[in-house]
Design brief:
3-stranded antiparallel sheet, 8 strands
Length: about 120
């Protein structure tokens, strides 16, 4: 993204297609120099067969992102969060926790990662 300088967006949303536009992507973030919110919508216009861009700055960017929230079907932050799962590394020790009638056994490493192994 570009405003006062080039910077990476905080998140990117993939927006549902409509009758005129397809391949819609909304990027938004905060400019590190002036601290204004920036939103950029890039979409393919099926009527003229070209990509178009809509850029909003300031309070209009915030309102624009809020209005597009209902049209979002996926986001980059959701996809990245689904990729990474907690995994223990090398040396592991066990922790048994009793919750009411059940005992839960966890594997924990020295870096703080915890994985549920089994419930008894």
């Amino acid at each position: 993204m570009r405003h006062c300088c080039s910077f990476e967006p905080m998140d990117e949303w993939f927006i549902k297609d409509d009758e005129r536009f397809s391949e819609r992507k909304l990027s938004f973030g905060i400019c590190p120099i002036c601290s204004k919110p920036i939103a950029v919508l890039i979409q393919f216009d099926d009527t003229c067969k070209c990509f178009t861009s809509v850029k909003k700055i300031g309070i209009t960017a915030q309102n624009f992102v809020k209005s597009m929230k209902g049209l979002m079907y996926n986001s980059l932050s959701k996809m990245n969060a689904a990729k990474f799962k907690p995994v223990t590394y090398k040396w592991v020790y066990g922790i048994n926790k009793q919750v009411k009638d059940k005992v839960k056994q966890y594997a924990k490493d020295f870096f703080g990662s915890t994985v549920l192994v089994k419930e008894i």
